[in-house]
Design goal:
Elements lengths: L3 H11 L18 E5 L2 E4 L4 E4 L2 H4 L8 H13 L11 H13 L6 E5 L2 H17 L8 E5 L8 H5 L4 H4 L10 E3 L22 H10 L3 E6 L3 E2 L5 E2 L2 H14 L2 E5 L23 E4 L11 E5 L2 H5 L21 H36 L5 E7 L2 E6 L15 H12 L1 E2 L6 E4 L7 H19 L2
Length: 450
Amino acid sequence: MTGVDDILQLDRAYVWHPCTQMKDHEQQPPLEIVRGCGALLFDAAGRRYIDGISSWWVNLLGHAHPRLTRVLQEQAATLEQVIFAGFTHAPGARLAARLCAAAPGGYAKVFYADCGSAAVEVALKMSFQFWQQTGQPRKRRFVSVRGAYHGETLGALSLGGLALYREKFAPLLLDTLMVPGPDCFRCPFQKARATCAAECFAPMQAALDAHAADVAGVFIEPLVQCANGMNMYSPVYLQKLAAACAAAGVHLIADEIAVGFGRTGTLFASEQAGIAPDLLCLSKGLTGGYMPFAAVLVRDAQMFDAFYGEYSEMKAFYHSHSYTGNPMACRLALETMDILTAEALPALPVRIAALQRVLASLAGLAHVGETRQCGFIGAIELVAARAGKRAYPPEQRIGWQVYRAALRRGAILRPLGDVLYFLTPLTIPLELLEELGAIARDSIREVTER
């Protein structure tokens, strides 16, 4: 059996980690995690860490959940994989029906994929092909907002508005209309997100007014732009967007990959605005964090009908992934939804209130510019000075320093720039949530008040 040093040596020699400047590992070597239990992870030396970010936002119900582990074992022993073109299976069919019934407003069809970026690619291609096959070939552009993040494949990256991810690949990307979006922390209208009329919607309205004839769809992350520093905005923006898309005759495509399945306090974030997007992208927590999986929900059966016809018409949606509709993933998703609806969601208001108290305890720190919350997502924006909301120089890497300080104290709080966030499993015990808040407070003070 290899030891900790052996694993780190192998990692250093052969592994290229995602979203990482590998030189950072000279100061902060990767942790070898060997076990998970609930909201806790354990490294090879036996130290435990509170998983404050749900292992990149996927672990919905806690690590090594006994019911999810059991159904995975059962399904793996029965049918682990089968081609989903020309074949079907009970978990895939039942999950599609369950998702269509659960989504806001009711949906007609489900197309499976294998990760969030792939779901966005499916929605992009589906929308584009629909217009090509319904007599409106000019509708081939997409609209997104600055600060958006929809994934890192080239199509998905084309819809993103974060320079960190897209700048170097700009020559390869689609011609997307990128408009200014909500920025509630530094609102140019001096409004509050809880009471505003989404005055920031004006650029989106202008874009749709000017380009409706050329636009296939608008992509949006409902309520929270997660990768954009957990930027939270008013549901009024979504209501205006749904109305504008309907009036302009373009698809509204909601990316609920990160914010779906209870993260914002309801099963789907779109519910809080009372909207039913034309296409709804899901992934991350869909299997409780056990394995990659994604789904695109289609609201209107007429969209499906545009692809339906004789083979010779070549109207079918020719998009596939080898693991499309994987039965193990489908079975996990069914069990995840059972646990969510029967246990996690009914208990969520207590945890949302506890998170609110934790954030309130951090709001008074000298270098906290804002704490914000949407359901069970919390964020802390660190600033060099509260006056003017002056940001730290990026080269100081304040958020990364706080992350390292928190690791030493037993918590994973991987930042987004200088924004720390709490995005824990929905089932985290209240005492661990309070401990996470205390670790965040001590770590912020260590870095910002020295």
